[in-house]
Amino acid sequence: MSFRRDTFTKPIFSWARGVLPAMSDTEREALAAGDVWWDADLFTGNPDWSKLLKIPQATLTAEERAFLNGPVDELCAMLDEWKIFWEWRDLPQDAWAFIKREKFFGMIIPKEFGGLGFSPYAHSEVVRKISTRSIAAAVTVMVPNSLGPGELLMRFGTKEQQERWLPRLADGRDIPCFGLTSPEAGSDAASMVDTGIICKGVFEGREVTGLRLNWHKRYITLGPVATLLGLAFKAYDPDHLVGNQEELGITVALIPTNLPGVQIGHRHLPSMQVFQNGPNWGRDVFIPLDYVIGGEERLGQGWKMLMTALAAGRGISLPSLSAAGAAYAARTTGAYARIREQFGISISKFEGVEEPLARIVATAYQLDAARRLTCAALNAGVHPAVISGIMKLHATERMRIAIDDAMDIHGGKAVIDGPQNYIGNLHRAVPVGITVEGANILTRNLIIFGQGAIRAHPYLLDEMNALADTDRERGLTAFDKAFWKHVGHSFQTLFRAFGRSWSFGAFALAPDAGDATPFYRQLSRYSAAFALCADMALLTLGGALKRKEMLSARFGDILSELYLLSAALKRWQDEGRQKEDFAALEWCMATGFKTIEIRLAEILANLPNRLVAVILKLVVQPFGARVLGPSDRIVHQCAGIVLEPSTARERLTPDLAHVDDDSGFARLERAFKLVAATDAIAKRMRAAHVRDWKEAVTKGVITQAEGEQLASAHAAVAGVIEVDDFAPEALSPIYRKTGDVHQFFQELGEQRAAS
């Protein structure tokens, strides 16, 4: 062992130490945050599918189910998204009071502190359901239960802090927000200029050691109504009151918003969404050190704390909202396509409509599968950092595509705003999800593969830690052990990738999963190809790979597809291999395989070391990118899932908010059921070449009762197709004097002529 280390490993170790790029403290802390999970199996190139299938499903307790079917349904009934947007610009006051009283802000807070003590999956289900009724309400509820003071206090707070603040957060006496983003530093939080200077000061009549804070934050959800602000800032100790270090680093503290010097700004209006959001400032705000979350010993540890909390939060909040949006789009768009006729037939019969509708259906299937799998990890106490990044990015991006498709199929119905438009506000809200909790461009190009390659790789992190060890001999020994394991692993992956690629995955290991078994074989094949190409890119580019953002993004896309497709397979298995859902699974697989093959081809075409690229192509893609995507048969079957009332449709769109009112969604649901129920009647009339139901009754084609049933269906469809219109004075104050737009313009013309 010593001969190998001193003869072969030592020069490699010396070379690697010289080329290893310096890592900032924020990068190191971000890498250390959270856990690895199924992503690590995918990075091995040989995932153990039995491990995936043995993961317990995320489920609700009886208490959580009762809350979902009780208080959540009650809250949804209080909400009218059009009035929230157009009239109130806020949630109604009774909804605010109900949210506080029923402890929606304390879902994740343990019962011992007065919260509900719900699981991450229950949190996700609540957000998901509310999202299908009101985006403003969903964001209001999800933020206090995601990244914020409550989560940070539970994980890092002192016992005294928990006992003081958590009960107040749980019952709504305090409304929390969290201030991270500043004008100078958006995604680059390390560049924030907000400061906290350790000094002596007077607080509540006594002199204590504390922090004098100055900050400017913006885009802060719940900021305008918050009573307790979680604040991220850079702490400094110029007088060495707590230690020898002057620059302590990013720190997080609790700031009651009634303290002198705190200024709450006016509201932002994010993409015309009216959830509470706005800027705030602090000018020479003094707090004692025990307001630092975790106390004095947590000074300078804020970035790691935030990244750890974010590893959980990003896997719940926005993925829940996005999965809800896709499921809602599938249910509403399928129903609308079924009842809407053009050229005398349902538009659902047009292949041009079937294609985007199938994409919506499969997206809804896959996003909810991935949401449930991620929640299963969180329920088990795992905080998968890389997977949370995958979920945030791909859930919001795929929701964007699904909502765009829904808008296209609905046409003018979704374009004309008003109380009956059940899809337009969701379309307006999409950019919010794309931007917040880590912008998608940054997440795709830098984080998923950049963090995943180090954290999820079997040996890379051990090698990096060995190279960074200040004790050279200890580092060399550790590097020798990890490096040669890495070499052996790479050769295994090379032969595995070669065999699986040339045989099209025919002999790759796969569980007995019925009709889905071939999909596991293909994922094993692509996992080996990904692992080999990633190793070769890291070997040939080293630290420079961090600057090759387009290459990194393509690797991240492959890793993301491997995870999302794994989730879809597990969902199909967990739900009992439902044959009616298989088309959605097939669509996901065909589309995902196509993406993986395209990204592999793009990586090989752009890898700087062309010799390595040519060799890799012969190994992992000898016949080129061959997958074309879903067939027309799959598209037709997939779209059909939401075109008729069925158990498959209900499985795809469970637990949406159903309020029996006169809203556009409720009208659509009623019309869809009536049209489906009268389908056989309508077919008899068409066969008899009769269009009017009264004539059909006279001719004996249908009965009087059937005719009346058909008339009810036609009336219901007309009520759905109808769009809103407004009196001019209802839209603009300039018409309110006369109340007559024609008179207004006539008077305006006369005034101009006179002048």
Task: Describe what this molecule looks like in 3D.
Its cofactor is FAD. Keywords: FAD, Flavoprotein, Oxidoreductase. It holds the Pfam family Acyl-CoA_dh_N. InterPro entries: Acyl-CoA_dehydrogenase, Acyl-CoA_Oxase/DH_mid-dom_sf, AcylCo_DH-like_C, AcylCo_DH/oxidase_C, AcylCoA_DH/ox_N, AcylCoA_DH/ox_N_sf, AcylCoA_DH/oxidase_NM_dom_sf, FadE_C. This is Acyl-coenzyme A dehydrogenase. By secondary structure, the chain is α+β, with helices and mostly antiparallel strands. Helix content is 58%, strand content 9%. It is built from 33 helices and 9 strands. The strands form 2 sheets. Strands 1, 2, 3, 4, 5, 6 and 7 form a 7-stranded mixed sheet that branches. It is globular.
